Amino acid sequence: MATERRLAHSSFTLTRDYPVPVETVWFAFADADQKRNWTGDDDAFEPREWAFDFRVGGRDIDEGRFHGGPVSRFESVYTDIVEHHRIVTTYDMWLDGTHMSTSVASIEFEVIDGGTRMTHTEQGVFFDQFWADGAARETGTRGLHEALARHLGA
After folding, report:
1. To 5 degrees, how large is the angle CA 138–CA 46–CA 63?
2. What whole-number distance in Å separates Cα of residue 17 and Cα of residue 4?
3. CA 54: distance to chain centroid?
4. Distance (Å, rounded) from C-alpha 84 to C-alpha 108?
5. 94 in a domain, yes or no?
6. Cα–Cα distance for residue pair 1/120, rounded to 1 Å
7. CATH code, domain carrying 97
8. Average pLDDT over the chain, rounded to whole?
9. What are the pLDDT digits (tens) for 76-103?
10. Which of 47, 69, 89, 103 could potentially form a cystine with 64 if both were Cys, beta carbons 3.0 to 4.6 Å apart?
11. Separation CA 59–CA 75 (nearest Å)
12. Could you tell me the pTM of the whole model?
């Protein structure tokens, strides 16, 4: 049976305030150990490949297997970094070796009274059988923001 060829597009913006300085939130993205900690793999994930190169043109890779389930692979390239202000990436996702999506994401950091406002905006294109995954991507990203809040003690 042939795979149905189709595309779907999705976009979302998430805004979250953290009661810590911009530098603290920034460091959670810019430092390999911290990023691995909060984006890290919980007990439901068996890590495989990990790479971290936080610079314009640098690449991140995070691959692992969900226990008893599929292998997920994330590869990103940093296209713009302005310290304490913004990070822009393009990234691709695979599931069991099948390319599922390509996205552009921007993360903006703003000093506010009592901490930092972080705004994450993302546009994605989802391929073939993954065409309906846009809502799941937003949910997953929201979960990452929750993990960052726990990491920051916020």
Report:
1. 55
2. 41
3. 14
4. 8
5. yes
6. 38
7. 3.30.530.20
8. 91
9. 999 999 999 999 999 999 999 999 999 9
10. 47
11. 7
12. 0.90
